[in-house]
Amino acid sequence: MVEKRKEKKLATMKKLYADSYFWICAFEGSPYYKRIVHDLLKYCLKKNILLTTSFLSFTECLVLPIRDGNRKLKTDYIEFLTELRIINPIPVDPIISIKAAELRAKYNIMTPDCIHLSTGIQSDCDYFISNDLNLKKVEEIQTIGIKDLVKLIK
């Protein structure tokens, strides 16, 4: 059995993984979630904490703006995810793919989630930020919900 990482205070962290929902909340979420995400982004900028994500996040975030013909939102996502100095998008490589397959076999989680999880694990992230409570069963990385970030920032 893989030991879960011990809970850390945000101040001691160097790297967090944010799945697609986190980025969608930044642009399209409820005012409550937007505020939390924006507060975390400001905190990470101030403390130089790196936010890692998979290039899969680009795909997932861009579907609705493309489907709706919303060029501005599409451009906003692309610029935000590529130009903010604390965001580190990671390509899916063979190591991430193999780990994702292992996670899928072990936990029976959907492939896109396994790619996100594997990217966070392989990138040695301190926390995996997701509102998908099903992902908390993954022992290889500590998953935290977006609303729970408030406790870490304080």
Task: Describe this structure in a few short sentences.
The protein is 54% helix and 12% strand. With 154 residues, it is of the alpha/beta class. The protein has a single domain, classed as Rossmann fold (3-Layer(aba) Sandwich).
Distance between the termini: 32 Å
Strand content: 5-15%
CATH architecture: 3-Layer(aba) Sandwich
Low-confidence stretches: 1-6
Q: Which percent bin holds the helix content?
A: 40-55%
Mass-distribution shape: globular
Please state the structural category: alpha/beta
Tell me the number of structural domains: 1
Q: What's the CATH class, please?
A: Alpha Beta
CATH superfamily descriptor: 5'-nuclease
Arithmetic mean of pLDDT: 91
User: Quick one: biggest sheet?
Assistant: 5 strands, parallel
What does this structure look like?
The chain has 154 residues and is of the alpha/beta class. It has one domain: Rossmann fold (3-Layer(aba) Sandwich). 54% of the residues lie in helices and 12% in strands. It contains seven helices and five strands; from the N terminus they run βααβααβααββα. It has a five-stranded parallel beta sheet. Helix 1 packs parallel to helix 3 and helix 5 crosses helix 6 (111-122). It is globular and about 40 Å long. The model is unreliable at 1-6 (pLDDT under 50).
